[in-house]
Amino acid sequence: MKPVAKRATPAAIAVLRQATALVPKRKKASDGLLPSKAHIAQNPNSDHNTGHAVDLTHDPHNGIDCSELFQKLQADKRVSYLIFNGLIWSKQRGTHEYTGPNKHVKHLHISIKEDCAKDTSPWFPWLEKPKASVAGMARYLADKAKRKPRKKDVPSHKEA
Ligand SMILES: [Zn+2]
């Protein structure tokens, strides 16, 4: 059995923090870093025990779509393997059926390579909006608060 770490690695913590920063309303019910006692008993060699794994709740309604992440994160050099919805991916073996006891339908499991434990660079760069757009929205809202609404104040594009 792998010894259980006291803290998850910075790279694993960054997954959850960055997802929340990008999608503040996302559901977190199946998020996980370090394992529970039951999890350790069931899976004594899990990467969760060393803090090199993270579970991210599947919440496509709010923009955390784990089937999309399962595909996109295959390009991230920090990823050792991914598990979601009955499938496991690793660079060595590609995508194949996951036959473990938990099919992972409620969360994406990300295992992180040991030498990437401290790498907290963006995990979801495609979800990040350009800063100019955020600043523009803030200006628009400030202006709108000062004036009575007029037709031209309605933005032609959708921003959340
Ligand atoms: Zn997991």
Could you give a short description of this structure?
This protein has 160 residues and is of the alpha+beta class. The protein has two domains: 10-124, no CATH class; 129-160, no CATH class. 26% of the residues lie in helices and 16% in strands.
Count of discrete domains: 2
How many helices does DSSP assign?
4
Counting helices, strands and paired strands, the structural category is: alpha+beta
Shape: elongated
Helix content: 25-40%
DSSP strand content: 15-25%
Helices and strands, in N-to-C order?
HHEHEEEEH
Mean pLDDT: 89
Sheet with the most strands? 5 strands, antiparallel
List ligands, each type once: zinc ion
What is the count of β-strands?
5
Distance between the termini: 45 Å
Radius of gyration: 19 Å
Order the strands across the largest sheet as they lie in space.
Answer: 1-5-2-3-4
Low-confidence stretches: none
What descriptors fit this protein?
160 residues, alpha+beta, 2 domains, 5-stranded antiparallel β-sheet, 4 helices, 26% helix, 16% strand, binds zinc ion
Walk me through what this model shows.
This protein is α+β, with helices and mostly antiparallel strands and 160 residues long. It folds into two domains: 10-124, no CATH class; 129-160, no CATH class. 26% of the residues lie in helices and 16% in strands. The chain is built from four helices and five strands. The protein has a five-stranded antiparallel β-sheet with strand order 1-5-2-3-4, covered by helices on one side. Strand 2 and strand 3 form a beta hairpin. The longest helix is centred in the C-terminal third of the chain and has 16 residues, at 131-146. The radius of gyration is 19 Å and the shape is elongated.
